[in-house]
Amino acid sequence: MEFRGHRIPMAFSLLVWFVIWEIVGRLELVSLLPPFTEVLAAFPEVVSSETFADAARITLEAFLIGMGLSFTVGIGVGILMGTSRAVGSVMGMWVNIFESSPLTAVVPALMALLGFGLETMIVTVFLFSVWVIALDTQVGVERVNPSLVEMGRSFGATKRVLYSRIVLRAALPELLAGIRLGLIRGLKGVVIGQLLIAVLGVGYLFELYSRNFLMPEFWALLIILFAFAFLASEAVAYFERKVAFYASSR
């Protein structure tokens, strides 16, 4: 970002928003928005509490298991859709339907089927994230240069070698983009699922803080979730930039 010929770090915009937040909080213009300094002071209390440790463990467990399933199924289905026109025609419609559907409405049905436990959160994470991973994987596989595949076959490459060393590497830009979007949507899924259940994980903490009007703790927890989502997204984006040359070479 540049201002009058001077380069300004992007973090400066965060500082501006924090100052505005502090002013609005001090003026008590919004009753549910405490000053930012009070939110900062609540961080040690939130992070050091035993309740937060248990909630973070449950949330992270559901998120990691759900994302692991999403990666396995989404990449596998995306490869099949990209390499087989018949599979792409049959599965493509359903993947696009679920990708564009409001999946939040499905969570109450999952609660009725699976209960109020870890299984519901895992399935919620899976349903929120798997479709975009499958679609982006399909796009990446379809954009692989056919000459690369023909070259691999001419040198006697097996199917496992062909897909692992040629197809997946050539499809990395779209594959990583799908993973990055899937991570963000998976985090939305686990938070939404826990907010609706409101008996475990960070959903319980949000319910606890809001019910008792502990707004500094509420906003501190929200910032922690935002920071986690941002760091996870930027970690994948870093690898996206590293493999960007694959896209240009195609």
Describe the structure concisely.
With 250 residues, this protein is mostly helical. The chain contains 12 helices and 2 strands; from the N terminus they run ββαααααααααααα.
Number of helical segments with 4 or more residues:
12
Q: Averaging pLDDT over every residue, what do you get?
A: 83
Radius of gyration: 22 Å
Q: What is the general shape?
A: globular
Level of helix content? Answer: over 70%
Low-confidence segments, given as residue ranges, are none
CATH fold name, please?
MetI-like fold
The ordered string of helix (H) and strand (E) elements is EEHHHHHHHHHHHH
The separation of the N and C termini measures 31 Å
User: What is the CATH domain class?
Assistant: Mainly Alpha
Biggest β-sheet, characterized? Answer: 2 strands, antiparallel
Counted up, domains total: 1
Main structural class:
mainly alpha
Our estimate of the beta-strand percent is under 5%
> Order of strands across the biggest sheet?
1-2
Please name the fourth-level CATH homologous superfamily: MetI-like
CATH architecture: Orthogonal Bundle
How many β strands by DSSP? 2
